[in-house]
Specification:
561 residues; alpha+beta; Dipeptide-binding Protein, domain 3; twelve-stranded mixed β-sheet; five-stranded antiparallel β-sheet; 17 helices
Length: 561
């Protein structure tokens, strides 16, 4: 007997509720209390900017510039491991399912699905009347081309482990229906399909090869790709024929107002935070994100600027290579955890815009389990270092992308660890070089260059699986995914597997609770803080938001006359 959940209308405020047999519950975790170090604020600090410009928008005749902190890594969703790139891809490509502003799942290129009781077979109905911007039709054949790519381990893409391990086959039932069969029950399947990694690429572009997908993406989205000059800019142009504007295609309210969107959007990587702020204040850029925390009050006082902040699901980490001495000793990792004052980190580095993390995942992520924060204790740190054979400390190297925000973090950690005798050497570099050295590293952790690495992660599925597996599963060690800690723990592997293979909410919650407890005890990384998302726009711009996972959301961006 099949349980059915068909979603034939696109009401963006509706939570996508999956029955227990289909794995994903729409309810938020009830264990969401966190230790607050910053003051929670509303998403907007300037309520006038939340007023719609109605039919007075001229944005579709305007070209705008957005200044961002880093360059993009790729435009191929299945090879993307950073939220920044994934956010831009969401503007170019749509998925079978997507997320609304609050990370609730709703149908996009799909209209609904049926699943069997054990969550191993999914029959997905596809939306009709849609074409890619290269003219190719959206239909079952296009869906199959994408599923075939997702299942191809030989491509060696960073998101290879995302679905390839569970996909058994994908079949065409008719022109607008596909049937997906999995090797085993996968409780997070639909939420994974809503992840940016599963954005749908034109079959023509897939056939053109990996380079075409990476540098010239083609989708069905609100924008189409124009050009990407690495290190300088990436430009998109409005797709005025986007199906999301047409309520007859969405089957309900349109996904965006018909006058929303800009003629072109050019994204410029500007690593220096103060330069991004200056660009916004001089109108050389109309959008910036993130806003340097030290500049928030300056921008709030500027009548030509609107500033926003909201707690998201990004968690910040101080990652240690667990296969390299001395980080292969639990006592050393524990010592570093005690030696870093998380409250001071939030106040000094984040200017109060954050909260002390109590798990590897944030409170808004499904199956979050709160742990007791590790107190700041220099004496305990020194004691553990002495027990591990390092009474005089040691001199590890921290690798990070050269941005002003990262430099501020790095100098904070250097000062903190110096108080317990650890001489932290700082090695900032261009993000492209860093990605090659860290994410692109090959070989066992004991032989790679990275010792310590600064990072943040947002599980863009909204599910605990994608907040844990990419960061700490053995299968996720570089270059396949993001386990830069090179952490290998068989108990954790068992918990991850149990959470993936069950469609039962109780079993999944227990598995991820156990996983979070183990991670807290083993300290593969220092888990620092839950981020606030920050962004700012010119005063005439409305409708720009940041998704909880930190990605840009410009669906309803408008510019008043």
């Amino acid at each position: 007997m099949k349980k059915r959940l068909a979603l034939y209308t696109l009401l963006l405020t509706v939570t996508f509720i999956l029955l227990t047999s289909c794995g994903k519950s729409a309810e938020k975790s009830t264990e969401s209390t966190t230790e607050k170090s910053g003051t929670p604020v509303e998403a907007s600090t300037d309520t006038k900017t939340m007023t719609s410009v109605g039919n007075n928008s001229v944005s579709q005749q305007k070209d705008i510039i957005a200044a961002i902190s880093l360059d993009f890594t790729t435009m191929d969703p299945m090879d993307t491991s950073d939220t920044l790139s994934g956010g831009i891809q969401r503007m170019i490509m749509d998925g079978l399912f997507g997320f609304d502003d609050d990370m609730n799942i709703y149908p996009m290129l799909a209209t609904g699905y049926q699943a069997n009781d054990v969550a191993t077979e999914y029959t997905i109905s596809l939306r009709k009347g849609i074409s890619f911007t290269d003219g190719a039709p959206w239909n079952a054949d296009a869906a199959l081309a994408n599923f075939t790519k997702w299942a191809d381990k030989s491509l060696g893409l960073k998101r290879t482990t995302f679905l390839s391990g569970v996909l058994k086959k994908c079949e065409k039932v008719d022109d607008y229906t596909i049937k997906v069969t999995l090797n085993e029950p996968f409780g997070a399947f639909i939420s994974n399909l809503a992840h940016p990694a599963c954005l749908i690429m034109s079959p023509k572009q897939i056939a053109a090869g990996q380079e075409a997908c990476a540098y010239s993406p083609v989708g069905t989205g609100q924008y189409s790709f124009v050009e990407w000059v690495q290190g300088d800019h990436l430009t998109l142009k409005l797709n005025e024929k986007w199906w999301g504007y047409d309520s007859s295609l969405t089957g309900g309210p349109s996904l965006a107002d018909k006058d929303a969107g800009c003629r072109t959007v050019t994204f410029k990587p500007v690593g220096e935070g103060s330069t991004r702020v200056a660009m916004l204040m001089s109108n050389d850029a109309q959008i910036i994100w993130p806003v340097p925390t030290e500049s928030m009050n300056v921008l709030k006082a500027n009548s030509n600027v609107s500033v926003f902040q909201a707690e998201g699901i990004v968690v910040r980490y101080f990652m240690m290579n667990n296969q390299k001495a001395p980080f292969n000793d639990l006592r050393v990792r524990q010592a570093i955890n005690y030696a870093i004052d998380k409250n001071a980190y939030i106040q000094v580095v984040k200017n109060g815009l954050g909260s002390v993390a109590t798990s590897i995942i944030g409170p808004a992520v499904q199956y979050y389990k709160r742990n007791e924060p590790v107190p700041y204790d220099k004496e305990k740190a020194k004691q553990l270092l002495a027990e591990a054979g390092y009474p005089n400390g040691f001199s590890p190297t921290l690798m990070y992308a050269s941005t002003s925000a990262n430099q501020k973090q790095a100098e904070f950690f250097k000062q903190q660890l110096a108080t317990v005798g650890i001489n932290l050497k700082l090695n900032g570099m261009e993000s492209a070089i860093l990605n090659q050295k860290v994410q692109g590293a090959k070989g066992p952790g004991s032989q790679v260059e990275v010792e310590i690495y600064l990072s943040g992660w947002s599980p863009s599925t909204g599910d605990a699986d994608w907040g844990i597996r990419p960061l700490l599963a053995i299968e996720s060690e570089p270059p396949k995914s993001y386990n830069m800690c090179y952490f290998e723990n068989e108990k954790l592997e068992g918990y991850i597997k149990a959470g993936l293979q069950s469609a039962d909410d109780t079993i999944r919650r227990e598995a991820y609770t156990n996983a979070q407890n183990l991670i807290w005890e083993e300290v593969p990384m220092v888990i620092l803080a839950n981020d606030y998302n920050t962004w700012a726009t010119g005063k005439d711009i409305t409708g720009v938001k940041i998704y909880p996972d930190g990605a840009i959301n410009m669906k309803n961006a408008k510019i008043s006359k």
